[in-house]
Amino acid sequence: MNGNTPVLALKGVSKRFGPVQALTDVDFDIHNGEVVALVGDNGAGKSTMVKTIAGIHTADEGQILFEGREVKISHPTDATNLGIATVYQDLALCDNLDVVENLYLGREEVGGNGLGSVVRPLDETTMEKRTHELLSRLAVTIVDVRAEVGTMSGGQRQQVAIARSLLGEPKMVMLDEPTAALGVRQTAMVLGLIKRLREEGHAVLVISHNLADVFEVADRIFVLRLGRKAGDFAVGEASQEEVVAAITGAEFGHIEDEPGGNQ
Amino acid sequence: MSAHGGGAAAAAPEVEVAPPRLDLVRRFVQGDLAELRVVLVLAVIWIIFYIQEDRFLSSVNLTNLVLQATAVGLVAVGVVLVLLLGEIDLSVGAVSGLCAAIMAVLAEKEGLSPYLAIAAAVACGAAIGLFQGSVWTRFGIPSFVVTLAGLLAWPGAQLEVLGETGTVNITDTKITGLVSTFYSDTVGWIFAFLAIGAFAAFNLLGRQRRLRQGLSAPPLGQLVIRIVLVAVAMLVAIWILNDDRGLPLAVLILGGFVLLFFYITTKTTFGRHIYAVGGNAEAARRAGINITRVRIIVFMIASTMAAIGGIMAASRLLAVNQSSGAGDFLLLAIAAPVIAGTSLFGGRGSVWHALLGALVIQSISNGMDLLGLESSVKFIVTGAVLLAAVVVDAIARRQRQAAGRV
């Protein structure tokens, strides 16, 4: 964006599943404090691209640069260790646990010392206090952080899942369809949270089908079509028609040229 | 207070007061207050049997009832953990019989020290759990099938261990003393006051710690009511036990294990992970939890508790025979926590349900014995109670889902 090294860059990344070419020679970059929307029709390769960055798939060809260094992401923990957090569409929350328990699942704070996980007591007060701090920092209003996540609305669950991804202080957050199946008010809550992440300086990659949401929240729109980059628009300089055309492939060659030089 | 004051100021508290009461009813229906429900059920059962036969509530009978409930209760503690995973262990009855047989043969036939014999039986239980848990997680066979195989196989091993006589009488006083030891009245009262003091201190200090951190805490009055209720229950229990033979060691053993596993399930990382795996195994795995390890350890705990329950049953019966751990023992141990509100669907429950459920089941069985009912009737009634409990669980689950919860 402003000449800095991108947080993450893909250079010529390709991915095949048997005979299916899911990604072909994709170049992509994303910077700190930038929200990039990843759009495309079903089967365009959006999920494959996110999963490749998240370490669930490994790229067959091409380079991944993280803060300018070439990295190899071959396992989800590689991505996590680099500071890439992913919130999948299913959110991966335990509905029978409360907000604090879900946020700290797998990285619980324990008191005492020296003993194993079966003996050392959980430090509930510290976890609850930090949960309050995190949620208020993100301007997320959840009245009772000790309520089971299963009792909450879709928007609140999405917010909990996003908040959880931030506990490890990631540099980049990827959100898979965060507003799918949400009502108007809840969508607004989640979009507000995404803007908040940008203010905090995170790089945010959002998969979305909803162009209205994309235009409201994103700085840049990256379009995939049939596994190839089909466009990279700055939000202020592209119309919704142009983006739709890039997604569907109408006037494909014409549109690709314009925003390319823009970057 | 509501007579004066601005409209908004007067309306606001009203709005806030109403939901909690509704909330209580809703939570009751959705199964969140299962403990309260089961205490009510227990009270109803006791009143019914008392009307039929007033010896039911005598101190002698209540003490016997508690002693009868210890074996089932101990096995049920392990079963609770398995149910929390959303799994089932059908082998706990068979394992309890086999491990009791191993203890009896080592202590009585081989002349081993009773402590070593007990330790060997418990270790055997743990090894069986390790084996069954490993087969389940390694090959992805449903736990129900793996433990069904155990249900068939371990009684065979039990026959093998018992040898040709088929019955081993237990004469060792260390082993029989597990159930036949009673403490004096003084010890009982001291224990009661220590327990009440510890409960009060635990609650009050916990509240203080939350307040110091600036977190919300339950009102002091509510806490005091809770402490008073527990204190009264403790004192009445000790008073009844003292009226008969005194505080039994068996009760301390059962209570100790319940407390131990209550601590593990609610206050430790490992316990948190059990609930997480039972609630959403995939989410737990993605959170970096080694779910295979959690599962295997839980199955080891279940088999270990089965062994301990078997030892207590043997100590009460003064013998181990071919039918130890057979019959309805397994079903009672699984039914107990379910009756008390532990969900069969995983992720919901408490080890207290093992204790409460064992009391309910044993009360029914004990009461029907006292009334001299046929065992045919007993089986049917116990089955009906279990079915009713599972139906209540399913309804509670559906209510939760209707309310947008899972």
Q: What brief labels describe this structure?
A:
heterodimer, A: 263 residues, alpha/beta, Rossmann fold, 10 strands, disordered C terminus, B: mainly alpha, ABC transporter involved in vitamin B12 uptake, BtuC, two-stranded antiparallel sheet
Query: What oligomeric state is this?
Result: heterodimer
Helix content of chain A: 25-40%
Biggest sheet: strand arrangement of chain A? 6-7-8-3-9-10
User: What order do the SSEs of chain B take from the amino end to the carboxyl end, as H and E?
Assistant: HHHHHHEHEHHEHHHHEHHH
Count of beta strands of chain B? 4
CATH superfamily of chain A: P-loop containing nucleotide triphosphate hydrolases
Mean pLDDT of chain A: 88
Sequence of secondary-structure elements of chain A: EEEHEEHEHHHEHEHEEHH
What is the total domain count of chain B?
A: 1
